[in-house]
Each structure stands twice: as structure tokens, then as C-alpha cells.
Amino acid sequence: MYEWNEMVQRMVDWLEEHLTENPVLLKMSEQLGYSPYYCSRQFNQYTGMTLRDYVWTRRISRAALELRDTDQRVLDIAVKYGFSSQEAFTRAFHKAFGMTPAAYRKTPRPIPLSIRQEVFSPYHYWIRERNRMSEVRVKPVEIKVEFIPAHKFIGIWDIGAADYMSFWNNGHSCDEVCGTLESMSNHVLPGQLAQTAGWFYRNGKKGYLYGIPVPLDYDGPVPEGMECRVIPESEYLVFHHPPFDYLKDNGAVMKAVEDTAWNYDPKAKGYAWDEETKQDYQRHFPEGYGYAVLRPVRKV
């Protein structure tokens, strides 16, 4: 039923590993065993964009990060990502981001980078494997204390959303928001994951947030449609599950962590919840970090 979700995800994975190669479509179709026409048609159907447009936007976005993070010549970056000349690269960059590569390198600002497409999810995997799946490998949830200094948080706070899916279904563009935040990844608060979600509380109601934590002294631009708020320093109880297989175990791991986090009595560690002026954080990086919910606390 979802075979093509998986096949198109394989296309995306292949493209991400070969973005600097040409001709992309022919090589990819040979690797996957389908005709170039069929690959192109199915890619468009499942991602909503042509394969050519996807490659173009991902190349220009990768190039932007290299302009920001390296000292490579603009011409070398242009050639690396398939542009025939520095002038062609400059025209494409200006079309995508409204500024020249040189101007962006001199003064990086938030720009809407194209993000990697994901069309094969843990749900699709479960549908495919539900009759063959063995017991999910969930480890005990670790509980520890972490201090996070006062910082700023740039993002969106939505009182009408309760979780990740309802947030994106409430009028926020995942591609636009995540792409813009990715362009700010060089400003992340040390020791924290780049893009972070979580929960906040307003007048007794719980809402959902998504954004990026930055140092307290950050005074750069704030993307349109986002806010920048100061978050006080605090200790947090961290409910953490170590790295796991995203496709196989994501749902079970998230449930185990959240069940523990929302039902835990902090008095067991000499704390009380302190969520009136602070916010809960949600870290989700399955293969590298794992999954965690962080709740602010104060000593009692």
C-alpha cells in the first residue's frame, strides 16, 4: 500500500548523497531500477514538486550553508553544486533568497532554506511490518537534572496546538519554518539541539512551541512571523531515552518518555515544577541523541 512512499524516500536519500553529481536523474534511475520517466513522475506525486526543482532548491540551500560556514571561494561553491559560472549561481541565489551570495556571506540573516523531504514515516513502516514486527526495543527512561542558562528562544508559540502534528496542521508551513530556522543553526545556544519543540502554559492552558534557542546576547534579526522571548535560567528534569531506530521504535519510545515525564512527582528529587514563566522542551534526534522531554523545576 505504501511501497511508493518507501521508494520515493529512497530517491530522496540517494539525492541527498549525490547532490553534487550530474546527471542526477539518469544515475538515480539506474540505481533504483526504474525508468527516468517513472522516477520523475512518482517523485512529483509523492513530494508535490518536480525532481528538478527539489535538486535545485537543495543545492542552493547547501551552497548557502557553505557560504555561511566556510571560507571557500564563491566560484568553487558554485561549481561544486552544478552551476555553470559564478554569475549563474549569483542569479539563482538572488532568485531564491533576494540577495547575492557575497552579501549573504558578509551578513548572514535568516533565509528560507529548502529542507530534506520525508515521505516514509514510522506509520508507513508499521503498516508494512505490522504482521512481522517483534517486540519493540524500548529501554528504561533515564531521569537526570540539567541546568540551562538564561537564553532567548526564537520561534512560534501556538496556544491552539497541543503537539507536533496539530502545530503543523494549524497553519504553519513546516518547510518554511524549518528551513528558516536551519539558516540560523550557527546561532544555537551551546549544548542544545538546533531546532527544538516543546510546550508552554498561558492562563492554565497548554500550547505548543517550535523554534531555536540562542544565547542571551543574541541581537540579530528575528524571522517574519516569529517572536524572540527571554527564557530565565533554570534546572530541568530531563526524561531521556537513548538513540533508537526511528522507523521501528519512534512511537513506543515517545510514549514511554512522555508517560514518565507527565506522571512523575518531582518531590522524589527534591523539586517542584516551575512552568509558570518557563517552558518545557522536547528534543527529538532519534539516531544521534534519542528523545527527551525537559520540564523546568525549582528546589523545595
TrEMBL record:
The keyword DNA-binding applies. Keywords: DNA-binding, Transcription, Transcription regulation. This is DNA-binding domain-containing protein, AraC-type. Residues 9-107 form the HTH araC/xylS-type domain. The keyword Membrane does not apply. It comes from the Bacteria. Pfam families: HTH_18. GO terms for molecular function: DNA-binding transcription factor activity; sequence-specific DNA binding.
